[in-house]
Write a structure and sequence with these properties.
This protein has about 180 residues and is α/β, with parallel strands linked by helices. It is built from four helices and seven strands.
C-alpha cells in the first residue's frame, strides 16, 4: 500500500497523482487536492490568505494537535496527541504521535499508523523552509527523518523521496514508479 506525503517544497511540481492515498500539509490545496491535511500550527499562525485556502479545502479528514481547528472543520477533525519529547522513535507504535519540527513529519507518522508500507515524500525538500532556516532546526529535522526511516524498516515500511532535490535524498532512496529505488 502506497501513501504520498505532499509538502510545499519546490519538488512538489514533480509529483504526478496516481490514485494512491495522499496526505498534504497546511495550504496544500493551493497546489494539489489530498485525502487528508495535517496541521501542527494553530490557525492564528497562518496569514489570512493561507488560512482562507485551508478553510476552503475539502479533504476527507483534517489531522491536528490543536482542538481550535475543530471550529473550522467539525467532525472531519482528528485531534491527535503528541508523544512525550521530540522524535522518540520508541513511541512510534503508541497511540500518541511522535513529532518533530515540521508538519510533513507528522503526516508521515500518520501514514505509518494507517498501515501504509511505502511512504513517498514529495515537496518535502527541507530547503528554503522558513521554519528550518536555522542550521540546528534543519539538522534536527534531518536526524528525525533518518531515525524514522530506520524505525520504519523494523516494521517492513520503506520511506522514499519522490525527487533527488529533497535534502532527504542524502539517506532516503528516490522512488521510481512501480519499482524499488533507482
Amino acid at each position: 500500500m502506497i501513501a504520498h506525503i505532499l509538502g510545499l517544497g519546490q519538488s512538489l511540481i514533480y509529483h504526478e497523482p496516481d490514485g494512491n492515498f495522499t496526505i498534504g500539509v497546511n495550504d496544500i490545496f493551493r497546489y494539489r487536492k489530498t485525502h487528508c491535511i495535517v496541521f501542527v500550527d494553530l490557525p492564528r499562525v497562518f496569514t489570512p490568505e493561507r488560512l482562507k485556502v485551508i478553510i476552503e479545502s475539502k479533504p476527507l479528514q483534517f489531522i491536528t494537535l490543536f482542538p481550535e481547528w475543530k471550529n473550522y472543520f467539525g467532525d472531519k477533525t482528528l485531534i491527535i496527541k503528541k508523544a512525550p519529547g521530540s522524535g522518540d522513535m520508541k513511541l512510534l507504535r503508541s497511540e500518541n504521535y511522535v513529532c518533530s519540527n515540521n508538519s510533513t513529519f507528522v503526516a508521515t507518522v500518520h501514514a505509518f499508523k494507517c498501515g501504509y508500507s511505502k511512504i513517498i515524500l514529495h515537496g518535502v525538500d527541507l530547503k528554503n523552509h522558513h521554519a528550518l532556516s536555522r542550521e540546528r532546526t534543519f539538522k534536527k529535522a534531518m536526524a528525525h527523518f533518518k531515525e524514522l526511516s530506520a524505525e520504519f524498516k523494523k516494521y517492513g515500511v520503506t520511506l522514499y523521496v519522490g525527487n533527488a532535490y529533497s535534502a532527504l535524498s542524502e539517506f532516503l532512496p528516490v522512488y521510481r514508479t512501480g519499482s524499488a529505488p533507482a
